Each structure stands twice: as C-alpha cells, then as structure tokens.
Amino acid sequence: RESDDIIEQAGVDRSRFTAEESDIILCISDVSEDDDFLWLDKSLEEKEGLFVFNKSDLSLKHNVQTPFAWEKAFVSALTGQGMNKVIEFLSKKAQKYGNVIIVSLLPILA
To answer: Which among 18, 38, 61, 77 is least surrounded, fewest beta carbons within 10 Å?
Structure first.
C-alpha cells in the first residue's frame, strides 16, 4: 500500500522488504471481519506461509477464501484452540531452516 505520510511509507516499505526477504510468512487476520487480502503482495505467494485466523471463538466462519494455497489455522487466544497447528507449522519450518525469527508486518496492514 502507499501513503502520503513519509514516516508511514517508510514503515510500509521496510515491512514489504522484510516480507520479501523472509523464508516463511504467517498472515494473521481477524476471522470475524471480512478481509479481501488486497494488501497482501502477490509476490509473496511463492513463500511458505500460513494463514492464521484469530478470534475463531467469536465466529463460525471457517470457509475463508484466501489468495494463496497456503494452509489455514483458526485460532483463539481466549481458549487456545488451533494454536497446535501454528506451533507445528513453526516447528517444522524451524527444523527446515535452522531458526525462526518473527517480525511484524503491521505497517502493511494499517
């Protein structure tokens, strides 16, 4: 996304660069809200990723359309439901890549 605010744009650019340099991506979205994922750059599709839909305890919607064929995990921070899938995904990737460093893409979402 683009912004007229210089500082905000710098954060967006830094986040985009970080995503492009990453081996794996967790795309976290609120399942109780509609998300068209237009903010998600198509170039990231070739990465290994997981769509993580939080607040699953507030929504019965589990048939979410996503732009990439990544796996999906529906999680609840309140109950812990679905966290095993996220942990399993990260564990497998840590074994494959040797380590996992987590960075935030929040400026892209804002």
So the answer is: 38
- Long-range pairs for 80-85: beta carbons < 8 A, 24 or more residues apart: 81/56, 81/57, 82/56, 85/50
What is the pTM for the complete model shown? 0.74
> What is the tens place of the pLDDT at every residue in 41-82?
788 888 888 999 988 888 776 677 888 889 999 998 888 889
Per residue in 74-86, pLDDT tens?
Answer: 998 888 889 989 9
**Integer Cα distance of 4 and 9 in angstroms:** 7
What are the helix and strand counts (H, E) for the chain? 3, 3
Question: How far is residue 90's CA from residue 25's CA, in Å, rounded to a whole number?
Answer: 10
